[in-house]
Amino acid sequence: MQATVRELVDLSPVLAEVGRRFTAAGFEVHLVGGSVRDALLAAADDAALPTGDLDLTTDARPEQTLEVLRGWASSTWNTGIAFGTVGAEVRGERLEITTFRADRYDRESRNPEVAWGDSLVEDLARRDFTVNAMAVSLGEDRTVTDPFGGLGDLLARRLRTPGRAEDSFADDPLRMLRAVRFVAQLQLVPDPEVVEAMTSLAGELGRITPERVQHEFSRTLLNDSPSEALDLFVSTGLADVVLPELSALRMEIDEHHQHKDVYAHSLIVLDQAIALEQADPQAESPDLVLRLAALLHDIGKPATRRHEAGGRVSFHHHEVVGAKLVRRRLTALKYPKDVVEAVGRLTFLHLRFHGYGNGEWTDSAVRRYVTDAGDLLPRLHKLVRSDSTTRNKKRAAMLSATYDSLEERIKELSKAEDLGRIRPDLDGNRIMELLDIPPGREVGEAWRFLKDLRLERGPLDPDVAEAELLTWWRNRSS
Q1: Rounded to an integer, what distance in angstroms lies between the CA atom of residue 115 and that of residue 7?
Q2: What average pLDDT does the chain have?
């Protein structure tokens, strides 16, 4: 296994050369962190060696690192120099070289009090998890340093911290979300001490900025199999702090009024959506919008649950409530506006398919479905199909066949009409000319009337559209 990490170094002429340059200048330099971890994982799984940015650590101070790189790196950047990090690009390889650190954390502000260190082991001790606290020297001997048993943990698929988990998470609460991500990304199982510390310190996550929380949560969601990690996120109470709507899906079910486990259902929908996404060669993958919508599409159910006669439970208009909750929560987590709007719209539309009975779709209904979905239609197809989690094989087959027929109707109607760009049969200038009105609110009302008419009846001849508009205007004005 350690030979594999040395092989990674030897395969990269840039790493070998950077080792020689630092050694000649009298400094240590080591490959560290995710590069070492991923190379060892590749060896364990008999997979190809990973590629990507390379993290290095050195006893050289930042200004000394810049001097070593001078005239060799094609470019350098020092945006992280306050934290000891110098970036460089050499022959297409991106390096981040950080001075040994011996930080202490201010547990009020959660900011590190940056201090340079002189020891590799001391630097590794301050890292988040043992699997990230391994290093390989870029000197001639290629020594592997693993003071906290990271290799053994990696082979056992175990997630531990170099020191006490409680101290590590108190120093930087975001590490608890990284633990969640590593469950999804690396299929690691957190040590009981890690789970206990996460549970007891979950509230500390509230001190982390929404941007950092959102970044880690999204990285978790973009892995191939995030459900187990999301279970850890919810069970430790982290979700209660930053995404309480997800925890709320674990609604109590009483013996008289039973319904599907909405939380478990949501995780299954997410798994099925990922499978459909990955099977579609034309789809963006991984698709953050689809995955957020799959996970959160039912978050309006707790607020709309009603106990009905005969032990039934209803969730009327949960898609409307859910869309509002999605927009509010994703905005609070600082997601981009386009992501917030897309996930909100998918949440709002996810039940539309079920409102049309047994597949008796009129041309008008098909037009409205496509128009309302807009460019989200491929994602809506996947979300609706994923939302079928019934164990009744006959019902599952019926729902699938019904949606097949809807997609076929969309294709057929699209051949006759441009469903993706449905507009009124008259433009604004013609509306103003016919009705003899200036630009303003009334033009917008007339435009929307013609748009609805177009959705209902399909393309109209201009003279028919003009007659309908004049009739509407007379009735409106009377």
Answers
A1: 33
A2: 87
